[in-house]
Design a protein that fits this description.
Helix content: 10-25%
Number of strands: 9
Number of helices: 5
Distance between the termini: 19 Å
Number of domains: 1
Amino acid sequence: MNKLILIPVIGIIVLSIYLLIPINDPKPNNVVNLDGFSYYDIEKIQNSLKQKNIIVSTPVPITDYTIESYCPNISDIDSSLITYCTTTAVVNSQGDSIGNINFGGSPEVTMFALATFETTSISEPSVPIIFEILVKDLVCDCWAEYNSTSFSDISNWILESHKFFNESNKPFMKSTVDNLSDTKLVLEISQTENSIIQTLYIIKKV
């Protein structure tokens, strides 16, 4: 079921960093929903977005005390299980750094992905493109088959969320789709004094 929830927000910190250290990621060997996407799928995303003139940097592993800044705690996942995170910087077709695409979980198992973008306008054209490619590359191109919401496709969900946010005159909006294959999608939109922050979470159902 799709839900739109309005929640006030006091402050949000977004990290947009160029990081160019390669990943040394061991192959999965734990049993925590090994199905679905993994850290390695960033290569698929890089290739898909490159065709749209959107550049994603080489991923960087995060394992120290700063991990929560890149892969924050998610209510669906026990925070003690999140011990590994990778982050990339995203540059749009105009050459502007707009945010990050991150993966989180343990070194062996990818549990979620998130993409966070901070732009001057909610109408930044790169963001819906990136969100749609993320869902199709990491989950499936199967919206009509698995999703039972009133939204016709991913683009329609994002655009209607934008419309709801603009018309609500509230600083924060959250929309959830929890029945797309074995994943949960969460779209959050918030407004600061000078920018719009949009975050998409793609969470495996553990």
